Amino acid sequence: MRCPIETREQELLLEYCSGTLDRERAAHVREHIGTCRVCGEFTARQAAVWRALEGWDAPAVSPGFDQRLYARIGKEVSWWDLALRPLGVLVERSPRPAGVRVPESAQVDVASPDQVERALDDMEMLREFNGMVRPDTADPKM
Amino acid sequence: MTERVKPVVGVGTAALDYDAELMLRLKQGDCASFGVLLDKYRSPVIHFLYRMVQNQAVAEELAQEVFLRVYRSRSTYEPTARFTTWLFRIATHLALNTLRDSRGEKTREYLDDDGAELPARQISDRRPTIEQHMLHEARLEEIRGAITALPAKQRAAVLMHKYEEMEYSQIARVLNCSESAVKSLLFRAYETLRARLAHMA
Q: pLDDT: is A123 or B153 the higher one?
């Protein structure tokens, strides 16, 4: 094979060092490195970098990560639900006669007690906010 | 050199279909699918962000934003690219913005002093001596310094190439540039790293 440094194909050597070359090409590069001092030095230095980077572990993820994320999602979902379908989460889906298909968009999820409680809290906050911003027009029910 | 084992991010076609399928299930209201994606990609995303910004608290905050954006986008999601390309595009975008905003600041300062930033250590019967520990820390400091010295895009390219084992084409899509531009970024980045780290052999 022609020298990858002479042909400006150094990425071949990078791929060799990172172990991403297929067996056949890796064998050609290995054979070349055995006879080419410049490529030999290049790969030795790159391999050293590779090993150094392998020694850099990232810290463990903190245990509360998922909890924090789901809390944020829960908050967004409840506000979003309030904006799109104000009473949706409070209404339990009523049984419908057999054979009657209800469009997905018209179906309402069954809410768990904590969802209901959260929705009520959010509505309470909305009502207070509404009262503060526009005291004369605030709907006492909303 | 032996062929390396592919990690979770450098995925094959089967995994691509599975991740996309999970997103499509989430789109249809199956929230459990989001949990599966979170389990699978929580660590890769946080570790990538940690190595980008070199602060665990900031990395986790950014990762929260990444997964929030994934969740928010569920209704408009279309599997036009690999899920991991999309995921890391969001993560890289947030990391680059953070680095840009904190330019001039010392981003690696710990938010607290309780040592929580230090990498989790493996429990071993052969505990390292103080000298070994100090040597290890000095080497890590050198590696972190070398990575920090890279321009942000080169840093992102190296981290995706080295730790996520992404192909050039996927890194190119994440960074929104050509494959040849990625090769050039990586070549320059490794050149810098060889100059700084080759003595660690």
A: B153
Domain ranges of chain B: 13-108+137-200
Residue among A61, A66, A76, A109 with most chain B CBs within 10 A, to mutate: A61
Q: Of A72-76, B90-94, B110-114, B190-194, which gets the smallest average pLDDT? A: B110-114
DSSP character at residue B82: -
> Amino acid identity, residue A48?
A
Q: Measured between beta carbons, which residues in chain B are less than 8 angstroms from residue A45?
A: 194, 198, 201
Nearest CA in chain A to B180: A11
Tell me the nearest-neighbour CA distance from A91 into chain B, angstroms: 18
The model's pTM is 0.70
Tell me which CATH code domain B13-108+137-200 carries: 1.10.1740.10
Q: pLDDT tier at A106 (50, 70, 90 boundaries)?
A: very low
Count of CA atoms in the C-beta half-sphere (13 A) of A60: 8
Do the Cβ atoms of A45 and B194 come within 8 Å? yes
Residue to mutate among B70, B150, B190, with most A CBs inside 10 A, is B190
Q: What is the pLDDT of residues B97-118, one digit of tens each?
A: 999 988 755 544 433 334 344 4
Does the interface predicted TM-score (ipTM) exceed 0.85?
Answer: no
Residue given tokens 């463990």 in the structure block: A60
DSSP secondary structure string, B141-165? HHHHHHHHHS-HHHHHHHHHHHTS-
